[in-house]
Amino acid sequence: MKMKKDLKDIVREKYAVIAKQNKEQNESSCCGSTGCCSEVDYTIFSEDYSKQKGYSKEADLGLGCGLPTEFAGINESDHVLDLGSGAGNDCFVARAITGEKGKVTGIDFTDEMLEKANANNKMMGYSNVEFIKGDIEEIPLNDNSFDVVISNCVLNLVPDKQKAFSEIYRVLKHKGHFCVSDVVVSGELPDKLKQDAEMYAGCVSGAISKKDYLNIIKESGFNDIEIHKEKEVEIPNAILLNYMTLDELRKLKKDRIGIFSITVTAKKLIN
Question: Across all residues in the chain, what is the average pLDDT?
């Protein structure tokens, strides 16, 4: 696996290119004609947002792996933080729930995504939605500021997940909570797949086991951890065969090693 800084640079570079495309282009080839993402299709994880109140087609790049707002328990007037907000899709859906009395903040470290999100926000005409630049491992926001934190298929891209969840804990208010849709694995992925930077940026090799993922949440101080939704993500065999032999692929299937998207919530309860 590459060094932490290298991985962040890879993610930033690839999502900068994705920001310039629409969902249809991402579905056909995640980086279009550049070929920078080889055969990795970022939309294999995504779910349909089109029926969600507040949905904006321009903000939907098909990069999520769940619908965190569905289980986030967002109330009117809440202050919501979206980690890795991209073009603003989840922020606009969250804003439809919080209403005019609430506030939604999106954070992203890719300039091109922030530019697109701000353009979408201008089009939507929201005065209580903002997008700021920042790193999830070092969130540039005050302690105890948010009622709800959401994130959609982003924390798997963060090298230091322990630090990320510690930051979530820090910025949440007492009795606040988070809802995250993310990618985890069951079993041990082949080394070549885990080490490939392309697949890391494609949300696969950056994923850790569900058990380790939930342990990190618990160790960060959260209570009432609950998985609301879980589904297996089918990566085409043609892609997997770029990283393993046919015999290795057969063993992978036999051992039931899989990649899953989960939507999980937890609360910050200070004793």
Answer: 84
